[in-house]
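re: that chain from earlier
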Amino acid sequence: MKKLLTASFFALILGGMTSCSVQKQTIASKVELPNKKEVLEVSRRANQYFMNKWPDTGKDIVGKKVWPSNLWTRAVYYEGLIALYKVDPKKEYYDYAMSWANNHKWDLMRGTYTRNADHQACGQTYIDLYEIDGKKHPERIKNVKASMDSMIATPKVDDWWWIDALQMSMPIFTKLGRITGEQKYFDKNYEMYAYTKYKHGEMVCTIRLIKSGGEIKVLFPLQRTEW
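^ sequence. v structure.
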């Protein structure tokens, strides 16, 4: 009976996923995308709201804990800011990103030699600013490069056990590989990615059912938090 219920449950999930996929494709083919001017205008307003709310780029973020402002959530914002700057090169965007990087002395959260992808994420923007200014300021990538080199110097490859670690750290290896022309960055990047996919990631393929409070929760272990 349990096997039958389990099989039925998975069939329901897969059937729903397939149905949703077909519906999304059908809807997507009918939806007209907004024009570029509309997208740019909304992006400008959203970004201006953020910059107005956080005028001091070095100010700590206070919640249940106190976090330095180069933590991963803020680093992801600056990735978006740089992307906006590349299509809408306003000096105020550049100045805001430079202020943030300078406030943190172009270093990673928790120090240069962290192996934690969340702490390394800010390095993506440091590298972008280094390239935007014609690669004239190597001090901007000195610390992030030292961090990646320290990881390459060891055989350890199991650091990225949560799914968004790939977004936080992988681009740094790729950017450094492209800038320096050194294969070692691409090699280490793939080794760590492969471990995440084939070792850590094998858990994702096994959906664990946990009964809690009369409800069934479907958990994917590589997520940062539970659903």
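The longest strand covers residues 208-212.
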